[in-house]
Design goal:
With 146 residues, the protein is an alpha/beta fold. It has six helices and four strands. Helices cover 55% and strands 14% of the residues. Helix 3 packs parallel to helix 4 and helix 5 runs antiparallel to helix 6.
């Protein structure tokens, strides 16, 4: 089984993913942000996103070949077509794929993002960008959910 956790920046995808993967006996958690951390990094680079998805496909196939059948993957999918593309690629390894989108209020996200900034010693520019990015992603995902 593959569980995909989607949602805007700062919503808690990684935290939820770790809690979910602990519910399985033999599972793998794959964080799209870490696996897709390439230099140079361009948010809207279709080639970078396809590279990430192909890497996830290969990683899942590798783990399946070595006895792992349950996965939790988290990432920000801005468009339904983007999530559909990853699901298509992963269907080679599993016919049981579930996707969930996490949500919270803007006030809750603001608090979470600020707490994370303090914990990681981010500067003000990073914090401002993350707060703006949360609102931007929430608006995009709310529009595509209609």
């Amino acid at each position: 089984m593959i569980i995909i956790i989607n949602g805007p920046l700062g919503i808690g995808k990684t935290e939820v993913s770790w809690k979910l993967v602990e519910l399985f006996d033999h599972a793998v958690m794959l964080d799209g942000d870490y696996i897709g951390a390439v230099v140079p990094f361009e948010i809207y680079d279709a080639g970078r996103i396809e590279y990430l998805y192909q890497t996830l496909r290969h990683l899942v196939a590798w783990h399946v070949a070595h006895g792992y059948n349950d996965f939790v993957i988290n990432y920000v999918f801005e468009e339904p077509e983007s999530l559909a593309r990853l699901r298509q690629l992963l269907s080679e390894s599993s016919d049981e794929i579930y996707a969930f989108r996490l949500t919270c209020s803007e006030a809750q996200a603001d608090q979470r993002i600020r707490q994370r900034a303090v914990a990681t010693c981010e500067d003000g520019a990073d914090l401002d960008w993350e707060l703006h990015r949360f609102r931007e992603l929430s608006n995009i995902q709310n529009e595509t959910a209609r």
